[in-house]
Amino acid sequence: MSDPIASPPARSPGTLIAARRVITDPERAPLEHGGVLLRDGVVAAVGPAQELERTAGPVDHLEFPLGTVIPGLINAHVHLSFDVTTDPRIALEAGDLDAVRATIAANARAALDGGVTTARDLGDLAGLVAEFEERAASGSAAGPRVLSARSPLTPPGGHCWFLGGEIDTGGGDAERGLRAAVDERAEAGADVIKIMASGGDLTPAGAPRWKSQFDERDLAIVVEAAHARGLPVAGHAHGTEAMAQCARAGVDTIEHGSWQAPSGADGEARHDLSAEVAELVAASGAAIVPTRARGWETWPAEAGLDLQLRKLAWDAEHGIPLVAGNDAGVGVGYFDDLVDTLTLFAAAGWSPQQALATATTRAAAALGRADHIGRLDVGHSADLVVLDADPLADLRALKAVRLVVVRGRQHLPTAAS
Ligand SMILES: [Zn+2]
């Protein structure tokens, strides 16, 4: 007599997604009339749809005769706990953790609606983002995979101190504080260590954007401690000096990378596109995650668009890898419009293939996850997006998301359902 409890679980039949075009890697030729077989949360096969139909056995079928399938998008710089206003500090400082939880859930859903299947969160309060990730991973909440830095390392009263990551770098024992901060995050399950190498806008009383907050030795200690734990380091650096310090210390990604010089006596922002620093960053292998894009098509040239394009072209000319990330959560960046970042890259001279790679293959490589996400390949996570049109013909096709699959789970975008 068979015991139903002891019998092995039925093998998931899997889902075969067929489309007019399948882009497995934006920088390789697409598969025309392609198919992707998903099973148990991973890609089980990729190939011509007809061939997969013959060999897949009994599976669920989803067909998009006019659609294009792409790898799930990666947003390398978000803040899920921020409320998408120009001053997210206000809600966080109010200390209502349930309100912050609700913000995280809403932002995660918006990211998924926009085709983002991996979001790297670079600044969180009280581990609430990591708590959400557990729910998303188990399927009890809709959201992308979240790679979390937890609270960013900053000096007392420094940039984003209100996220709880203040390190006492005074008193001659900065090293112990920095190492303890890395260890504490590693043990709590952080996926990346974030350090605020320069000041920023969200902290009015803190250091200005261009100014370094740590010395190079402190940054090097953090990099060494994080790498020893197998964790990459993201260095927030608006200033050219802080970018150079980050590169010399060996951080893995430079966040913002705004090439800012000390402000003039009139307080006006100045910029220093230093060739020496660009060469240093390129030689270090660090990628830059520039983060300003929302609505860029309406920015007047003289109000920043020209400069922004010049900086992006400057990075590319020097061979610095660029990765898509939009600081979603802060007023300038929203969760469902990573496409604005890609069209901005295209305006600065990238091909659609290269632009899409900054949110897929190239992003996965910069985040140290190329063996698992960023491409549609056998054994990779079943993360994909079905679009109505081909983004390699026009990147704005990324605005018409039909279906998102993350870890093999299907999600219908709010606008499409
Ligand atoms: Zn940020």
Net shape: globular
The overall average pLDDT, rounded, is 92
Distance between the termini: 46 Å
Number of helices: 12
* Strand order, largest beta sheet: 3-2-1-4-13-14-15
Low-confidence stretches: 1-6
CATH architectural group of the domain at 15-71 and 375-411: Roll
Rg to the nearest angstrom?
A: 22 Å
CATH superfamily of the domain at 15-71 and 375-411: Urease, subunit C, domain 1
Proportion of residues in helical segments: 25-40%
- Top CATH class of the domain at 15-71 and 375-411: Mainly Beta
Encode the helix/strand succession as letters.
EEEHEEHHEHEHEHEHEEHEHHHHEEE
Ligands, deduplicated: zinc ion
Q: Mind describing the biggest β-sheet?
A: 7 strands, mixed
Count the strands? 15
Describe this structure in words.
- With 417 residues, this protein is of the alpha/beta class.
- The chain has a domain at 15-71 and 375-411: Urease, subunit C, domain 1.
- It contains 12 helices and 15 strands.
- Strands 3-2-1-4-13-14-15 form a 7-stranded mixed β-sheet, with helices on one face.
- Strand 14 and strand 15 (409-411) form a beta hairpin.
- Helix 6 (216-228) packs across helix 7 and helix 7 runs parallel beside helix 8 (275-284).
- The protein is globular.
- The N and C termini lie far apart (46 Å).
- Bound molecules: zinc ion (ZN).
- Residues 77, 79, 122-123, 327 line the site of zinc ion.
